[in-house]
Amino acid sequence: MLNKDIHDEISRINLTMNNYLEQKIFTEYKNSYVYVERTLLDGSIRKGIVGVIDLEEYDYKPGSKSKIRATEQTVSERIPVRKEIRENSILELSHVILLCDDERRDLIEPLKLSKHSMRKLYDFNLMQNGGNVKGWLVKGEHARAFSTRLNLYIKRKSKELEVLFAVGDGNHSLAAAKKCYEEGLTSRYAMVELENIHDESLKFEPIHRIVKNINPSGLLNSIRSEICVNTWASSKNSWPIKFYSHNKEGVVNIAKAKGASALIVLQNYFDEKKYEIDYIHDSEFLKELSDNETCVGFELPKFDEKAKSEFFSVISKNGVMPRKTFSMGYSTEKRYYIEARKIKDVG
After folding, report:
1. Closest by alpha carbon to 168, among 207, 219, 202?
2. Which of 231, 96, 206, 101 is nearest to 153 (CA)?
3. Which residues sit opposite 137 in a β-bridge?
4. In terms of C-beta density within 10 A (0-12 exposed, 13-18 middle, 19 or more buried), how is residue 13 classed?
5. Is 256 exposed, middle or buried (0-12, 13-18, 19+ CB in 10 A)?
6. Which of 42, 164, 312, 320 has its CA at a distance of 20 to 30 angstroms from the CA of residue 71?
């Protein structure tokens, strides 16, 4: 949809927003947050708190030193249509997932213990394998307590990391919000759902690569000669990456001296050579598609707890990761958003 001419559709969306406001179907809660629990398909409960960020504290551009940053490379071509949707909208409904590095579990987790004393706003099952979602109003003393914990987190983490919050999902939408604000079109603030990267329910899945329309042997030989170490070299000096091709599979040992991670080295190599790349989420699907005489598939390693614990320090040290580095959960778990927020004055 975002790649089509959707001016009529955008007009219809804006008209519907106006109608909703005129019909007063929303209930407004000022000076508050919403604590959210999403029960996922595997039974785990993902916790978050919905609020806003100041867009002056966020920057998606490479080399940014802002406290709120993108985690992956932002593709500039994906911003204009999202900007057009937002700049003519009165409301924002979908929100990004913003990550914090709260290994102490001081920020969000206390809300689970105090939710019995907060007003429950909603509790219902979602269609199309969306699981269940519950929300509680965080206001008054609970909101003040959260704000205090947030300020303490910022003070503590500022001594350890350059980046305090990282956009885990929805960065292009947030980049569009930034553009709209800079041009004076919409609010300085944007809605986000803050989640703790150390939450056990928060799953990071690697996104694999398939190089297409090449000679597999030639590609593998080139990779081994340009960005790998010898097979007999110490494993401390390399990252082993599995590959699959027609009736063949094996490992390439990407040299750690070439970059901050195997993916960064591989993606830079592919970009430099201008190879045609497909991005695949499932490893079995990767193997199936790689069974071709003109393709090679590369299986990226899973994000384990060690990778999650190092996530913020890697971004602070090396900047944003390559595009399509990871996926946070499944689309069925992210497509439903209950809250809405005004981003410009009505009338």
Report:
1. 202
2. 101
3. 34, 119
4. middle
5. middle
6. 42
Task: For the chain, state the CA radius of gyration.
Answer: 22
Bridge partners, 100 (sequence order): 165, 196
According to DSSP, the residues that pair with 208 across neighbouring strands are 280
Please tell me the pTM assigned to this model. 0.84
- Per residue in 161-205, pLDDT (tens digit) is 889 999 988 899 999 999 999 999 999 999 999 999 999 998 888
- pLDDT tens sequence across 96-140: 999 999 999 999 999 999 999 999 999 999 998 889 999 999 999
Regions of the chain with pLDDT less than 70: 1-5, 231-235, 331, 346-347
- How far is it, in rounded angstroms, from Cα 262 to Cα 256? 7
Q: Which neighbouring-strand residues pair with 226?
A: none
Q: At what angle do helices 171-182 and 79-87 cross, to 10 degrees?
A: 60
Nearest to 188 by CA among 178, 198, 196: 178
Q: Are 202 and 46 in contact (CB under 8 A)?
A: yes
